[in-house]
Write a structure and sequence with these properties.
Blueprint lengths: L7 H9 L3 E6 L36 H16 L3 E6 L9 H11 L5 E8 L6 H14 L2 E9 L3 H6 L6 H13 L3 E7 L7 H13 L4 E5 L3 E2 L3 H7 L8 H14 L5 E4 L9 E3 L6 H14 L14 H5 L4
Parallel strand pairs: 1-2, 2-3, 3-4, 4-5, 5-6, 6-8
Antiparallel strand pairs: 7-9
This protein binds iron/sulfur cluster (SF4).
The site of iron/sulfur cluster has 12 residues, from loops.
């Protein structure tokens, strides 16, 4: 296991003192960027699965999904503690009452020690966070909120039809941190239009905001999506695998060494694809990235020198 970046599995082991696994929960849902509230058609790369394709069918109750997933993880990984993970769609885009009911249903089991909630930056509100703060206080739960940002470049955000800009992410992140919850940012390092400068700015903004975890993805192109259509028409230029690796390494170098990296590359859905991970398995890409870190003798945080008055430090004034 590489020691050149903060690896998620080791972090979980250190934090909880034992193996902890996330149990994905899949709910029927939508997203304000699909139902017309902030946009229609969704992000240009989004398929109907709402970016949560590894889950059980959403017809099963929350309790049943937890029970089934728990049996699987116990058997396969000998896990003893779990985090309920609301993964697909926008899990706070619900009435407050419905949101509360879902969260409470997910923490009934005493082996659940935390909740992880995936949502959009424009679906974070104080009332929902206050409820989670009460729950944290009452049950001692670990609360973790995952925000899909994808890039800090607001021109690219507009191009991919995210329906929010950087400002909503900043707002959501500040509200989450105010309550002492953990935050996760999802970033795609090869969105069309983004360059190396955007990659560096992604790392710098995430570090400046003290985001706790980051999940890196490479863009995949699903057929019958807007992006798929653009790809068919030859309008999308993709970077090479070598360039992707270069971007991940650079991102890591600028990232705060305290930030935990949950993923270096996404897995991508099965089938119906035009493009996914350069037809290479995700673990092979992860291995290549780790080999490059060794070869270059570089590591996460090597260039994390830009916060807290860089000019003062550089001039030896402090
Ligand atoms: S925010 Fe997520 S669920 Fe909504 S359209 Fe974008 S990728 Fe799909």
């Amino acid at each position: 296991m590489s020691t050149r970046y903060r690896v998620y599995s080791s972090h979980l082991q250190e934090k909880f003192g034992e193996k902890v696994y996330k149990l994905p929960i899949n709910l029927p849902g939508t997203c304000p960027n699909r139902d017309g509230m902030v946009g229609t058609g969704g992000c240009i790369f989004c398929d109907e699965e709402g970016a949560g394709f590894e889950c059980l069918p959403n017809s099963l109750s929350i309790e049943k999904q937890i029970e089934k997933n728990k049996v699987f993880f116990k058997k396969r990984f000998n896990a003893g503690k779990f985090i309920s993970y609301f993964q697909a769609f926008t899990n706070t885009y619900l009435s407050l009452e419905q949101f509360k009911a879902n969260i409470l249903a997910s923490v009934k089991d005493q082996e659940i020690i935390g909740v992880s909630i995936s949502t959009r930056p424009d679906c974070i509100n104080d009332s929902y966070l206050d409820f989670l703060a009460e729950l944290k206080e009452a049950r001692g739960l670990n609360i973790n909120i995952e925000l899909g940002l994808q890039t800090v470049n607001y021109h690219t955000l507009e191009f991919v039809n995210r329906g929010h800009t950087l400002a909503e992410f900043l707002d959501a992140q500040l509200r989450i941190k105010k309550r002492g919850f953990e935050s996760v940012a999802h970033i795609i390092l090869n969105l069309p239009g983004d360059e190396m400068l955007d990659v560096i700015e992604n790392a710098k903004i995430i570090s400046a905001l003290q985001v706790d975890y980051v999940k890196l993805h490479s863009l995949y192109i699903v057929k019958e999506t807007k992006l798929g259509q653009m790809y068919e028409e030859g309008l999308i230029k993709l970077i090479s695998l070598e360039e992707y690796i270069e971007r991940v390494i650079t991102f890591m170098e600028y990232l705060d060494p305290a930030t935990v990296i949950q993923r270096l590359v996404g897995k991508g859905p099965q089938g119906n694809l035009y493009f996914c991970n350069w037809s290479t398995s995700w673990w092979k890409i992860k291995q290549l990235i780790e080999e490059f870190l060794e070869e270059r003798d570089t590591y996460q945080g090597k260039k994390f020198t830009y916060l807290n008055g860089k000019a003062l430090k550089n001039k030896n004034l402090i």
